[in-house]
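Lecture 7 notes: from sequence to structure.
We start with the chain below.
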Amino acid sequence: MQYTRILLKLSGEALMGEKQYGIDPKRLSEYAQEVKQIVDKGIQVAIVIGGGNIFRGLAGASNGMDRVQGDHMGMLATVINGLALQSALEDAGIETRLQSAIKINEVAEPFIRRRAVRHLEKGRVVIFGGGTGNPYFTTDSAAVLRAIEIEADVILKGTRVDGIYTADPEKDKSATKFDFISFDDVLKKGLKVMDTTAFTLSQENELPIIVFDMNTQGNLLKVMEGENIGTKVNL
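Predicted structure tokens for the same chain:
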């Protein structure tokens, strides 16, 4: 295997599956099986999940809601998604811990870096909920921050497209895919991989990012085995 410890970033929208809103149990089960494949190979897995299938703070703010209140609602949405994913992973036979950046002790452990690392060393999947615990930061930023803190080898950003393209492949049929691209080239070309704060933090800490299609069965394992799946961003 190419990596020992990874952080998997999933969007909240990914959990909707074929639905227009909320959580699709079928999609959750599929993701749990994908994660199980790599956990069974001895890879240590941490996960950060968004909350956009339930609530987006930025969307709330654009409709007149207080931005800080909206962001706190979004953080709670990520905890709901984390609980759902924890349940699916445990149904698949994977020992899982949910840690939250905001105190919600009845349903999740508080985020404690050393405890998270210990869980990973024991083969447990750790889900980080609650974003960074601060408003104005996205779950992309939370993913990079947690990956750095736990000393992950790579961030895997699971999306519905199979990598980074010269343009949006869903809108521009002539768009071409990159297999490898540098952080500098992403910035020069104005490509959207993560928000700028998260992307810069990853670049400064020399933490590679792989963007790949999480919805194709077996892709996560193929990435771990070093196959040319998706797009790799590094220095």
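Points to note: The domain at 5-234 is CATH 3.40.1160.10 (Carbamate kinase). The mean pLDDT is 94.
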